[in-house]
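Reminder: ligand-aware prediction takes two inputs, not one.
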Amino acid sequence: MSDPLWDALARVQDPELRRPITDLGMVESARVDDDGVAHVSVLLTIAGCPLRGTIEADVAEAARTVDGVHSAEVSLDVMTPQQRQELKDSLKQRTVPFMEPNSLTRVIGIASGKGGVGKSSLTANLACSMAAQGLRVGIIDADVHGFSVPGLMGITQAPTRVDEMILPPVAYGVKVISIGMFVESNQPVVWRGPMLHRALEQFLTDVHFGDLDVLLLDLPPGTGDIAISVSQLLPGSELLVVTTPQSAAAEVAERAGAIATTTGQSVVGVVENMSWLELPDGTRMEPFGSGGGELLTQRLSTRLETDVPLLGSIPLEPRLRAGGDAGQPLVLAEESSAAAQEITRIARQLTHRPRGLAGLNLGVNPT
Ligand SMILES: Nc1ncnc2c1ncn2[C@@H]1O[C@H](COP(=O)(O)OP(=O)(O)O)[C@@H](O)[C@H]1O
Ligand SMILES: [Mg+2]
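Here is what comes back for the chain with adenosine-5'-diphosphate:
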């Protein structure tokens, strides 16, 4: 028998788990009394749930949409350890671990030769653009020494822990986890290789991303331990290499991409960032020279013996920087800007390509 109140509650999603609260065993009871008051008792996964206010408001709003209900009383309680275990078991079955060969999640590591080329800004903007296309997207900020993704995405909320499971905060529809969420504010991370490997492994196993279409990893610059760990933990992952137009930058980026020959990963393409600055009179100034993206594309194509495409060239855009500082990615805040449109175009090329065709020429004409 269908219960209109229950049906309405089934449209409420847990903000972190992204599944109907009715499926998650979070609705303990729901009934409408004779005076038209809906009484809903909700079980939270943990007592200190940071999103309890959101859940409470969403439940009340959904209940009030039901015919004959004119007000709602929502009571919040906490799951028992046993209820929590049942929830975790049900989630596990539906999780596609990214490491399995049949995983449908595309994993793309965003790599660069050196820092400051816009790798993190691109990661955040690509993720938001893909989420806006309706894809389920996650980011792992694997730049352990220079984590910046939470700031770029405006995330101040800490991950929620449900026993040993970690629920990543969600911003603009993107699930984000970063080492920055686990360290005291602005303390340096002094971990070495094995600890970094363990941290990454933990992100991949204990963090509940759920089914994702795309997982982006903001990698540290260069060819360090993390790059090797990623290739070991995520053998099916691809690399996207970011460079500036400067030929010296392209040369260091070549090493970051060429690591794919050793790790067996494929390079999905190259993105040139900071390509030009449009002056008020409409002319283009090229503070970092030109040709770096093209050069890197040619070099990687030769080294990897496959066609590595230049997926796009992103202009310098002060609003991109400002959006990053404000935690509002440009592709959402200023979607008509040339930089945002180019990033969106790059995101589409990445998502509109079936997996496993890495290196195929897409017939892309870089501007
Ligand atoms: N296309 C761009 N236009 C203007 N500023 C940019 C652009 N790309 C990156 N930036 C700025 O350059 C700086 C470095 O970018 P970031 O994404 O942190 O690089 P990385 O992760 O490679 O170190 C940031 O201040 C960022 O806002
Ligand atoms: Mg960075």
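Residues 355-367 have pLDDT under 50 and may be disordered. The pocket of adenosine-5'-diphosphate (ligand 1) is lined by residues 112, 115-121, 148, 273-274, 314, 316-317, 320-321, 324, 339 (CB under 6 Å). We will return to this case in the review session.
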